[in-house]
Design brief:
Number of domains: 2
Largest sheet: none
Number of helices: 8
Radius of gyration: 21 Å
Number of strands: 0
Structural class: mainly alpha
Shape: globular
Distance between the termini: 21 Å
Helix content: 55-70%
Strand content: under 5%
Length: 307
């Protein structure tokens, strides 16, 4: 039950990020001037006939946000029954979605661009958190990880941190025009993350190997989208599709960035919290024995719950 709810919430949040990108890149963030109502209506009772232009994007974003909030509440309830660390993750997710809704609403009421930056950054962190919850509740996620060197675990964490920093830089580019930080971050990510992904892929881990391959593909797609977004925004070069392309490229760029962040965070967590990730220790005068509490790779282990 928890796994299915986590998947549903993750998928709904992916759509929410897509709609958020449309709101930002069409300039529709303030198309609805009030909050939590919509032109004086209860949000869910606003007439569909009036959802046109920027109102369509902004109000759809609000409705999807409400759906994500309800799904997160249900997910937190399911995780509460699981107990342990999953219970805490459910509470964190619930707190994050409430904070995210408040930030979005206050952005409209206070007309403060700084809140939009925090709103965008928290959205990405929330999406990554849901990806982790999905991993820890998935049947495959409960299988012990392949043995991995401690240094590689640290590199996986660093890769996730770099990707999130790059997303923050992207938010600063969108709302504050800081292209220098975003370009520097892109260089670091494109050099460092593929190296880490290649090493994680070679572990042969049932979870990490396919996700590492996905990260490599997504990075290639992201590079192309980034170049296209840069050309569309900062040059006078004609591009096919004109306004549609100018809007679609950065929206897709933001969405793929979310997927890369979620994947790298999942990889970092995979080797940080699961049991059975240490190599068996040799014993004197006999064959190697597994350390107490360890689980052989490929065997079910207690990884669905964080202690």
């Amino acid at each position: 039950m928890a796994y299915r709810l986590a998947l549903a919430t993750l998928a709904a949040t992916c759509v929410l990020i897509l709609l958020g990108g449309l709101v930002t890149n069409t300039g529709a963030a303030l198309a609805v001037p009030d909050w939590p109502s919509t032109f004086g209506y209860n949000m869910v009772l606003f007439p569909w006939s009036r959802m046109v232009g920027g109102i369509l994007y902004e109000h759809s974003h609000r409705l999807m946000g409400a759906l994500v909030g309800l799904l997160t509440l249900a997910l937190a309830g399911a995780l509460w029954r699981e107990g342990g660390g999953l219970r805490r993750l459910g509470l964190i997710a619930m707190a994050a979605v409430v904070a995210q809704g408040a930030l979005g609403g206050l952005r409209v009421v206070l007309l403060e661009d700084t809140l939009a930056i925090f709103h965008g950054c928290l959205a990405q962190a929330f999406f990554a958190l849901l990806a982790v919850i999905t991993l820890l509740t998935a049947p495959r996620g409960r299988v012990a990880a392949s043995p991995t060197e401690p240094a590689l675990k640290g590199l996986a964490v660093l890769a996730a941190v770099l990707v999130y920093a790059q997303i923050v830089f992207g938010t600063l580019l969108t709302h504050a025009g800081r292209i220098d930080l975003h370009l520097a971050g892109a260089l670091l990510v494109l050099v460092f993350v593929p190296i880490v992904a290649a090493q994680l892929r070679r572990t042969g881990d049932a979870v990490a190997a396919p996700i590492s391959r996905l990260v490599s593909v997504l990075l290639g797609v992201q590079l192309l989208l980034g170049i296209g977004s840069f050309v569309a925004r900062f040059s006078s070069i004609w591009i096919p599709g004109e306004q549609f392309t100018v809007t679609a490229l950065p929206v897709a760029h933001r969405l793929v960035g979310s997927l890369i962040l979620a994947a790298t965070v999942v990889l970092a967590v995979r080797f940080s919290v699961v049991a059975g990730s240490v190599r068996p220790a040799p014993t004197e005068g006999g064959p190697k024995e597994e350390r107490a509490g360890s689980v052989a790779p490929g065997q079910p282990g207690p990884v669905g719950r964080l202690s």
